Amino acid sequence: MNSASKIRRKVAQPSASDGVDSADKQEQLLLSSAICNNEDVGPFIRRAFASGKPDRLLLHLRHFARSKESEIEEVCKAHYQDFILAVDDLRSLLSDVDSLKSSLNRSNSTVQSVAVPLLDSLDGFLEARNISVNINLALRSVHSCIKLLELCSRANLHLSDNNFYMALKCVDAIEGEFLDKVPSLTMKRMLETKIPEVRSFIERKVSKEFGDWLVDIRMVSRNLGQLAIGQASAARQRDEDLRIKQRQAEEQSRLSLRDCVYALQEEEDNDVLGGGIEAGGSSESGVLGFDLTPLYKAYHIHQTLGLEDRFKQYYFENRKLQLTSDFQVSSMTPFLESHQTFFAQIAGFFIVEDRIMRSSGGLISKLDVENLWETAVSKMCYVLEDQFSRMQTANHLLLIKDYVSLLGVTLRRYGYPVDTLLDVLSKHRDKYHELLLSDCRKHIGEALAADKYEQMLMRKEYEYSMNVLSFQLQTSDFIPAFPYVAPFSSTVPDCCRIVRSFIEDSVSFMSYGGQLDFFDVVKKYLDRLLSEVLDGSLLKIINTSIHGVSQAMQVAANMAVFKRACDFFFCHAAQLSGIPPRMVERSRRQFPLNKAKDAAEEMLSGLLKTKTDSFMILIENVNWMADEPTQSGNEYVNEVIIYLETWVSTAQQILPAPVLRRVLQEVLCHISEKIVATLYSDAVKRFNVNAIMGFDVDIRLLDSFADNQGSLFSDDEASQLKSSLAEVRQMINLLLSNHPENFLNPVIRERSYNALDHRKVVMISEKLRDTPERLFSTFGTRGLKQNPKKKSLDVLIKRLKDAN
Description:
By secondary structure, the protein is an all-alpha fold. It has helices at residues 2-12, 22-36, 42-51, 54-160, 164-178, 185-255, 272-279, 281-288, 293-304, 308-326, 335-359, 366-390, 394-412, 419-427, 429-450, 461-467, 491-510, 519-545, 549-576, 581-586, 594-616, 635-651, 657-680, 689-708, 715-722, 726-736, 746-752, 758-769, 779-803; strands at 457-458, 484-485.
């Protein structure tokens, strides 16, 4: 280091003998300093070339190299001394090494003599250890082969027992644990060949079992669907029975005078199918042999084989094909006969799918089941639309509708939406009721045609209960003595049964159809049945088949009973629809059979008028110019009264008082009009006061007949009955009045002669004016009797003619 610093100092001093100028010296000094300090000389080179003096730079570099040669020489001299010293040290070290070598040789000879026996022992040990290792390897190979053979034997045993899952587990264990470790190449090749064959064999066997299960499950599904729908039907029937008992209890409570307490205990619903399906597969197997083991086995085996997705797709496609096959409707068998099998098959299919979806661990997804259900619903809707459009019998529609509604109830329990199916049923509501109305029209026509219109005889209490109590036609709460003659004919209970059947069928169709409040619909069609069908049929039979008074009277009596029956019909419809009867009572409408009732009463009164007309012919025998008035009435009125009294004695047994009053009022009004018409007619040219006084007696007899009916009617009704004779009574009173011109007084006319026609008064009064000569046999008497009344009558006639 000292020599180097000396040399560096020597380089740093400029030579006194250099002939260069100071600038060159400075540049040389800087270049030397940069080289010594290992700095970059690039700037010097660039500057030299830039100034065009590279030779000077080369000169400086050569000068620096010469200056360094001397320095190198000095350094070499200094190092030479050190090298000489080192060589001396090495020579002394070589002698030490020779002595060490001889010592090592002696030690080696000693060690060799001692270690040879040990090395021989070590060789023997290593050979024995290698033999032991080989033996252990052989033992492990033997044990491995034994385990492998045991697994192969176990796999064969499982295969022979059809325990495919355990066989696959053995095969997987052989492949995973032993295949790469088998010492025998031949055995390894055998295993590599047989393992795929075993798996293929298991897959074929499981697929065959699954195919057999697919065949069996169709029959099981049908039976399962029929059982499930049958249980839904039984549950519905229990509910219906419970509601009937409830209605009976409420009715008895309402009618009973004592405080009664009714307790209805509902039986437990032991739903074997529902409970079994909710609980698990074991209950299902107990009910119908509903076994999903082959399916689960096949699915599990395919999962083990790593073919899970392929099996899912295979299962879904096959079940979809089965469902499509279930949709086929045979054209050889009427749908009415095959519809239960058709819907039960579909119901069973989706009950099975629901169970598989919830218990198979992902074999089929909820979305797939929903897609299958949507397909099934659309197909069922199409089939229903098609079959309903062809049906022309209401009962057939009802049977299919009931079964479809039971299908909906059954599958709704498993979470399937059935509103679309119920909408199809609701859409055919009008067609069903039209067919039902047509059937009822036919049955009602047959019942009316078969009736003889005679009072119905009931010999036993059950007949009374069946024909009267069941329709609430009784007028008393007491059971009559038997035999009992009803006030109606067989038409009434027959038609009531038809209407009640219509109500029950209508309610049955509307029930369980998704619509809770359907009473208004049932009421609408019931109104149509009564006002169009029953009323129209009664009108037709009245106008075409009723010819006698007794028949007409019976029809009129039937109409009165029908009025009570109609109240029962609407209450019965309300009860079946779940509507309180008091709400129906509040909204009661007019009698729907009014046209037939009016026609029956009109027919009866018309026949009675015809009959009385046969007696009124005797009015021709009246002595119009009688010498004295009759005291016992004319012959015709006595015959009429005898007939009417006889008829009333019979009619009051079956006709209600209002009907009897209206008919009698019509008949008496007709008699009144007939008498006035006779006086007005051209057949009567003249009559005297004695004849009018005889008619006055006739009217009093008719009034007396009306008064005698007071026990049947109220005072007002009896007064209305007598008012039917107002026209003839007022005409007789006017003709017998001493002051007939009072008719011209508006007040008196409104009070006493309001039923008279001016023209009739003129014509009839002119006939009375022609009195017989013998009434005026003496001159004095003639003047006393004639002048005041005749004068008044002449004034009346003249004034009325002037007014006209």
